C-alpha cells in the first residue's frame, strides 16, 4: 500500500486537535462539490441547446445545400442537375427559390420570407412533424397551397377554413430597369390558399411561408434560376465525403455547405458561450480550492509532531510533500466525485422528467434540453486535477521545508 496515501487517509478521517480545521476541510469539500456539480449541469445544458438548434434548422435545411458563390440566383441547367445526381451518395435534389415578399390577408399585411420548394423537399425535411393545423400539401387537384408559420398566421389572423379570401403575395417587378411605382405592372401579385400551419421556433414561425416551386417561379419571374439546391444523402453515407465530392465536381462557382456550416455563426456563438462559462466556473472552482490551501496549512501546523516522528524514522522531504498533496487530493476529489454524481443525477432527472421549463411553448421542446457527454466529464475531472495540484503544492512544499529547517 502507498504509505503517503495511507497516512493521508488516516488524517482525513481522524478528528483534528483544532476543530476549525475540520470546518475548513468540510467547507472545501462543499465548495468543490457545488462548483463541480454546477459545471457539469451548465455544460450539459449547452450541449442540449446545441442539439436543439441542430434539430430546429434540420426542419428547414437539408443535409447539404448548394448555392451560388456570388449573387442570389444561379441558373439550373440539366447538365448541372445531372452532375449533382451523378455523385455517389446523393439520393435526391430539391429545388428552392427563396426571397422576401409582402404577404397580405384581407386588410393585414406583413413582410415574410417565401420559400418556393419542389415536392421532394417535403420528403427530405421534417415539416410533417411540426404541423399544428391543416394538411401538409403544396399542390392538390391543381390548387396551390401555402404552409405558414404560426407567427405569420397570428399576425395576419389567417383562417385555414376561409374559402372566400385567399392569401395575396406581392413581389416587385425586377424584369424592368426602371419601374413606375404607379404602374399596375410595378408589382406582381398572386393569390394562394392557406393550407397548413407549422410551429417550431419564433424566428421561423414569424418569418417563413412555403409555397410550390412553380408558384414562386412565376411570381418572381425566375425562369430556370434557383437560389439553392437542397440535397439529401443516402442512408449510411458519410455526408462530409459527399460534400467534398460535390465541391470538387462543381468548382468555385458554387458554395457547398452541410447543416452546421449553413448556421456556422449560431453554432460558433453557442460554443463560445460554452467556453466562457467553462472558464468562469473554473475560476469559481479555483477560488473554492483556496480553502484547501488554508486547510492544508493548518493541518501542517496541527501535525508537526507526527511529521517530526516520520522524519526521525527516515521520511524524506519529498515524502512529506507527497503526503500533504495526497491529503489535498482526497479532500478535493471527495467533493468533486460527489459533485459529478449530483450533476449526473440532476441532468438525468431533467432529461427524463423535464422539471425546469424554458418558459415558452414550442412544438419541439418545453423543458430545457440537456445532453451529457463523456468528454465534458473528462474535462471537468482534468480541471479539478490541475486546480487541486496547484492548491496543494505550495502548502506541501512549505511543510517539507519546515522539516528540513528543523533537521
From TrEMBL:
Q: How does it sit in the membrane?
A: Multi-pass membrane protein
Which intervals hold domain ABC3 transporter permease C-terminal?
280-401
**Location within or outside the cell:** Cell membrane
MacB-like periplasmic core domain location is: 27-248
InterPro entries listed in its UniProt record: ABC3_permease_C, Lipoprotein-release_system, MacB_PCD
Name the residues that span the membrane.
20-46, 275-300, 330-356, 377-397
Q: Which UniProt keywords apply?
A: Cell membrane, Membrane, Transmembrane, Transmembrane helix
Q: Its family?
A: Belongs to the ABC-4 integral membrane protein family. LolC/E subfamily.
PANTHER family, per the entry:
LIPOPROTEIN-RELEASING SYSTEM TRANSMEMBRANE PROTEIN LOLE (PTHR30489)
Q: What is this protein called?
A: FtsX-like permease family protein
The organism encoding this protein is Rhodocytophaga aerolata
Q: Give the classification, highest ranks.
A: Bacteria, Pseudomonadati, Bacteroidota, Cytophagia, Cytophagales
Amino acid at each position: 500500500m502507498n504509505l503517503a496515501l495511507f497516512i493521508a487517509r488516516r488524517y482525513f478521517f481522524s478528528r483534528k486537535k483544532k476543530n476549525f480545521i475540520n470546518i475548513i476541510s468540510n467547507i472545501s469539500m462543499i465548495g468543490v462539490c457545488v462548483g463541480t456539480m454546477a459545471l457539469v449541469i451548465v455544460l450539459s445544458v449547452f450541449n442540449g441547446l446545441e442539439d436543439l438548434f441542430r434539430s430546429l434548422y434540420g426542419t428547414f435545411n437539408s443535409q447539404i445545400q448548394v448555392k451560388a458563390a456570388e449573387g442570389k440566383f444561379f441558373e439550373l441547367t440539366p447538365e448541372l442537375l445531372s452532375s449533382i445526381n451523378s455523385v455517389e451518395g446523393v439520393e435526391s435534389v430539391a429545388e428552392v427559390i427563396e426571397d422576401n415578399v409582402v404577404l397580405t390577408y384581407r386588410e393585414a399585411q406583413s413582410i415574410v420570407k417565401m420559400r418556393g420548394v419542389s415536392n421532394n423537399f417535403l420528403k427530405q425535411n421534417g415539416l410533417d412533424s411540426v404541423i399544428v393545423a391543416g394538411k401538409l400539401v403544396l399542390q392538390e387537384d391543381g390548387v396551390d397551397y401555402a404552409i405558414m408559420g404560426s407567427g405569420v398566421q397570428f399576425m395576419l389572423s389567417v383562417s385555414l377554413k376561409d374559402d372566400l379570401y385567399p392569401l395575396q403575395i406581392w413581389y416587385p417587378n425586377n424584369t424592368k430597369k426602371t419601374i413606375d411605382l404607379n404602374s399596375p405592372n410595378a408589382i406582381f401579385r398572386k393569390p394562394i390558399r392557406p393550407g397548413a400551419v407549422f410551429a417550431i421556433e419564433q424566428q421561423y414561425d414569424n418569418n417563413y411561408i412555403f409555397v410550390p416551386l412553380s408558384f414562386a417561379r412565376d411570381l418572381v419571374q425566375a425562369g430556370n434560376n434557383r437560389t439553392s439546391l437542397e440535397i439529401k444523402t443516402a442512408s449510411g453515407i458519410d455526408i462530409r465525403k459527399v460534400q467534398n465530392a460535390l465541391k470538387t465536381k462543381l468548382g468555385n462557382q458554387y458554395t457547398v455547405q452541410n447543416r452546421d456550416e449553413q448556421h456556422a455563426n449560431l453554432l460558433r456563438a453557442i460554443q463560445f458561450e460554452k467556453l466562457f462559462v467553462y472558464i468562469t466556473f473554473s475560476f469559481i472552482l479555483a477560488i473554492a480550492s483556496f480553502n484547501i490551501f488554508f486547510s492544508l496549512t493548518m493541518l501542517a501546523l496541527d501535525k508537526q509532531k507526527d511529521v517530526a516522528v516520520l522524519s526521525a524514522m527516515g521520511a524524506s522531504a519529498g515524502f512529506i510533500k507527497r503526503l500533504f498533496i495526497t491529503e489535498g487530493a482526497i479532500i478535493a476529489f471527495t467533493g468533486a466525485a460527489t459533485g459529478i454524481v449530483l450533476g449526473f443525477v440532476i441532468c438525468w432527472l431533467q432529461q427524463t422528467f423535464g422539471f425546469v421549463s424554458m418558459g415558452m411553448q414550442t412544438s419541439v421542446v418545453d423543458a430545457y434540453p440537456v445532453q451529457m457527454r463523456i468528454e465534458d466529464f473528462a474535462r471537468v475531472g482534468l480541471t479539478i486535477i490541475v486546480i487541486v495540484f496547484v492548491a496543494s503544492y505550495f502548502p506541501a512544499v512549505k511543510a517539507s521545508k519546515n522539516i528540513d529547517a528543523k533537521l
